[in-house]
Amino acid sequence: MYGWRGIVGLVKPTYRAGSLDRFIRLMPDGVCVIPRYVGVSSGTEKEFQEALKIGEERVAELARLRVDLILIQGVPPIMLRGYAFDAELRKSLEEKYHVPVLTATMTQIEAFNALKIRRLVGITYFKDDLNPKFSKFFEEGGFEVAAMKGCSDVPFSDLGKIPAEEIYVNAKKVFVESGGGDGIYLLGAGWDCLPAIEPLERDLGVPVVSNVNADVWAAQKRLHIREPVQGFGRLLAEMP
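The structure corresponding to this sequence follows.
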């Protein structure tokens, strides 16, 4: 029987390969995933601002398919609207479509709380015109942001080609130079940052949260499943 442990509908911002495959592989057997796409392609603030309207159309499609949970991935469109908007959006969608809705922003907030991260060091692949706005989102949520630093000049379409070793080097550099924190946040699912998580946790002694590991952890939690995954950091290994 397909989906005997739950069916997750994903609203994905881009058609980019990688993060969907990672999410499906890390979810337990018995969970099915149905993706729908918004179609973000350039990663500009204007495009992110327009993405939410299309995102709601995808939520409506998934609700009609009677999924057990809808997860809206892609954090910039929500972060740019502010912390309070996140809860308002989820409440509005749940009341309208009668299905539990999670946002990737909320999965990360919940992961920070579960790992007792109050001061975070953020590393992104966005330009520094957006990064202060991402910092503001978390500060509105009560977190201290030691840094929110863009660490890539790779075009938005090629983010999946950034080596994990490069992500590790940049994250470690920003962490040390910013004075450290309770945890590291690797913002964005466009790069394949999962292989960098365990080396960073071992070397720096703090937990690391990314879009993918937070989404997998939170989706299991909402589906009342607890199946730890080794090799991708404390969040999935310990399932707090």
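Residues 45-64 form the longest helix (20 residues).
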